[in-house]
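User: Please predict the structure of the protein below. I'd like the answer in structure-token form so I can feed it into my own downstream comparison script.

Assistant: Understood. Taking the following sequence of 344 residues as input:
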Amino acid sequence: MALHRETWLDLLPADPRPALLEADDPSARFVTLTGVLGVTELDPEARAARAAVIAAPGIHALVDRLPLWEPGLKFGGHNSPAFPPNLLRLLYLLGVRAGDFPRVERILDRMLRHQADDGRFLTPGGTTGGEATWASLPCDHFAILEVLLLFGRGSASQVEAGLARVRETFAGTAQGPGWLCVPDPVAAWRGPGRKNDVCLQATIEALRLFSLVPASSRPRQIVDAARTVLGAWRRRGAEKPYMFGHGRRFADGKWPPTWYEASTVLETLAAFPSAWKLKGASSEDRGSFAEITRALASTFGPDAMVTPRSCYKGFEAFSFGQKKIPSPWATARQCGILRTSWRR
């Protein structure tokens, strides 16, 4: 395959694409083809790579980790890869799609069955993975709704009710338009932040899920929430809403990606270019987006590969779960984000 020079490669010390295409990891090849080279998933090479993803023993092992969606579920927090929506999203990022695994379809079916009257999808592990049952914070509801959309459940009536709830809770915050941490009426727990502070994780999740639906289904002025996220970066030295910081850990992230970090910010805001690139973008927001992009580029090594600096336990069988060796999939993911983010 001919590889044309692109401007985002100027951020890196070398071109990692040839090595990624030759990687043993089928998910790395699939992401390189579709996310870095822009090949459609229907392309024969991409189809072959995805078929190898579905056949990979490691993917089957991840699917087998999906628990029953029932009371008593423990997941250790919303940032944990054990939180089923996070695990489902990881599988999607690796190349799994709707219809590939019956176990995936079963848990999605169960998620659709548990919804509050106000439209919130509920999780059986309480709001923090404890003993409480069937409760929901925004970062529960939004994450569940996103994987339902990713795996083809967008036509379900419950999904439209869930989207309506997200639109209704789009609000003004101390940092600008976005989403607050709204306590569940039963499990009245709220995150470690001021009541009127923006929840950057919930705001990123909301923006991400609205990027999956037509513009007519989004809140009006949703791009202002993207601008709020960029403003949080600019004010990083003065405030830290809900303990979301913007230092080295923000740039490096933690693998697999589940939470608020540079890669998720860039990946999400790429769908809202009027906030950072098009005519209506302010010079401040353009500059902030470029700074975050350079911060992400700084995580590549001299070989133009990403070696994870922090990993969740339990993923040692994957390159992104090891801190001492370059990860083809992590590199492919970050290259795809740089490709959509870097504009000069």
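That's the full token string. The longest helix spans residues 283-297.
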